Amino acid sequence: MTSFLQLSRRALLGLALIALASPLARAAEPLTLTPEQEAAINGISAYLNSFKTLQGEFTQISPKGNLSQGVFYISKPGKMRFEYAPPNPFLIVADGTWLTVKNVKKEKGDQFPLSQTPLRLVLSNTVDILKDTLILDYQDQDGILSVTIEDKKNTLANGQLTLVFDTTRNALQQWVVIDGKGRRTTVSLENVVAGVEPDPKLFVVKIDRKNKDKSSP
Fold first, then answer.
1. Nearest 5°: CA angle at 19, between 17 and 24?
2. Phi, psi of 2 (to 5 degrees)
3. What is the pLDDT confidence band of residue 211, given thresholds at 50, 70 and 90?
4. Domains by residue range for the chain, with CATH
């Protein structure tokens, strides 16, 4: 599994492009895009619509700079599993309706409606970024396209999502969830394979609703 120090040059460029975006992008007006920019963003939508299932490895950097790694599975519409490698005790599962963050060591967890999180855009059966979102930032350098978006249906309350797309490889390389307080969680994808049907049981998770956990991965 790829370590942080082994992240590719393109991954590092993606992080640099994200850093160029305003940390207060929420207050920015939506961009007026050129036809070329619209075409590039439509390319990201086309990629996200090109698969129903996806799996691979990920490296995550938390808002506090903590590094975690693991494996992920996506099954559209609405299903996702992020399984963290030890010592990170967390498991994140979307079952199509709920997004569950579980501490597997403590058997505690929290649940949020998937429809109210930015990730619903990635997990939707049909993605149309230009139609469904506000484009707040657009950066394009050396084949790496970074687009910061805000869901039109859930503006302000539920944060933003930055998608980093490698136009040379035609692949989603990173996403960054920016919460309502401006905290960033960066996820880089590696060794991604499309078209492999995951076990449906991977998207089933149980938590003790009486014993919620307020920490995060």
1. 120
2. -65, 130
3. low
4. 28-203 (2.50.20.10)
Identify the residue with better confidence: 193 or 182.
193
Plot region of 5 (φ>0 → left; ψ -120 to 50 → alpha; else → beta): alpha
Q: Which two tokens stand for residue 168?
A: 């040379």
Q: What is the pTM of this model?
A: 0.81
Cα separation, 62 vs 47, in Å, equals 26
So what's the pLDDT on residue 102? 94
Parallel, antiparallel or unpaired: strands 160-166 and 79-84: unpaired
Burial 131-157 (b: 16+ CB within 10 A, else e): ebbbbbbbbeeeebbbbbbbbeebeee
CA distance 41 to 62: 26
Q: How far apart are CA 98 and CA 116, in angstroms?
A: 9
- For residue 20, how far is the Cα from the chain centroid? 19
Query: Cα separation of 51 and 123, whole Å?
Result: 11
Say whether pLDDT at 68 is over 80: yes
